[in-house]
Amino acid sequence: MKKLNLETLSLDELWQLHEELNQLLSVRLNAEKRALEKRLAQLRRENEAVNPPAAPAERQRRPYPQVHPKYRNVNAPYETWSGRGKQPKWLAAALRTGRSIDDFLI
């Protein structure tokens, strides 16, 4: 391959060279992409032949211990909260009015 002296080329010649390089790169990248996609499809077929797809197994959740409530709404005793997760609205409203969380302990 002959070596170009880019310093001696005019702006129009440099731009033409730029466009030719872009076109050549585009063609080669597309060819490489098609070859890789073809190889990937072949590997997937080989993998399915060796390991046929099984029915998706349902994941078992790990058993969590029952959490007993720590806080109870004074106005509605059936409303309780274990202290985990987001605070219930009744507790958040009571705390905004100036009450302490200790007032709701069971």
Can you summarize this structure?
The protein is mainly α and 106 residues long. The chain is 45% helix and 4% strand.
Strand runs, count: 2
Structural class based on helices, strands and sheet pairing = mainly alpha
> What is the share of helical residues?
40-55%
What count of domains describes the coordinates? 2
Strand order of the largest sheet: 1-2
Low-confidence stretches: none
The global form is elongated
Question: Would you tell me the overall average pLDDT?
Answer: 90
The topology string of helices and strands comes to: HEEH
Strand and helix layout:
Layout lengths: L10 H40 L20 E2 L7 E2 L7 H8 L10
Task: Tell me what the structure shows.
With about 110 residues, the chain is mostly helical. It folds into two domains: about 10-50; about 70-105. It is built from two helices and two strands. Strands 1-2 form a two-stranded antiparallel sheet. The longest helix has about 40 residues, at about 10-50.
